[in-house]
Amino acid sequence: MDEELLPMIYETLLAHYGELQWWPAKTPYEVIVGAILTQNTSWVNVKTAIANFGANLSPESVANTDIAKLAETIRPAGFFNRKAAYLKAVTEWFERYSYDVFTIRQKPLSKIRAELLSIKGVGQETADSILLYAFGFPSFVVDAYTVLLCNRFPVETGKGYAAVKAYFENNLPQNAKIYNNFHALIVINAKKHCRKAACDGCPLSETCGKCRLIRDKNLSNTAHIL
Fold it and tell me: What is the pTM of this model?
């Protein structure tokens, strides 16, 4: 059943929302910056911080900018001193590849992921976001919305980031486009329907375990009133 469940969920969400074309960025480096800045803040704040760079958002400009000035630029994203240091560190790593995305894409995914995880401020979700959205590697991104989806059906993924990531990658084709779309679809559907149990109109309402429980409870309450 597991090997059929995720493709079914993916196709249902895709038919409902279409392809979402994530990550919203002009360049791969902007994705890297966004992945760092979005830690512990909203995307609205990240957009404001990125806009502060104006036309100067490039790895060269970040590398050459004084860290205090960089921190002030990204202030809207919160934790700006810490994130400025993280940006410097990940940009220094990127420089080792001459800021060349093509060169990175020729390397094994496992090597690039290990290198990213060795950078201060880059955890698993951030690393996978960079791998998938900046470099096009088939590395599934797990976030709170992914875990929420798993709990609502529910599916036995095991505990922890690595286990959930492995579950998705083992039950889907190894395809960056599918991983990209699926993660985006999970996020948009969860924001719209899952945070307040707003199951009406949810494309997964007929198969989601949580939706069934809510529907059965409502029917039971209605029957009791009648």
Answer: 0.90
8 A C-beta contact, residue 136 and residue 105: yes
Q: What is the spatial distance between Cα 225 and Cα 220, in angstroms, rounded to a whole number?
A: 9
The average confidence (pLDDT) of the chain is 90
What pLDDT is stored for residue 198 in this prediction? 66
- CA dist 51 and 67 (Å) reads 18
Domains and CATH numbers, the chain: 28-134 (1.10.340.30)
Is residue 194 left, alpha or beta, with left meaning phi > 0 and alpha meaning psi from -120 to 50?
alpha
**Could you tell me the sign of the dihedral formed by the alpha carbons of 93, 97, 99, 103, in that order?**
negative
Q: pLDDT at position 217, please? A: 52
Among all chains, which residue has been given the structure tokens 């939706």?
A: 211
Q: Report which of 137, 121, 217 is spatially closest to residue 129, judged by C-alpha positions.
A: 137
Residue type, 212: R
Confidence of residue 21 (pLDDT cuts 50, 70, 90): confident
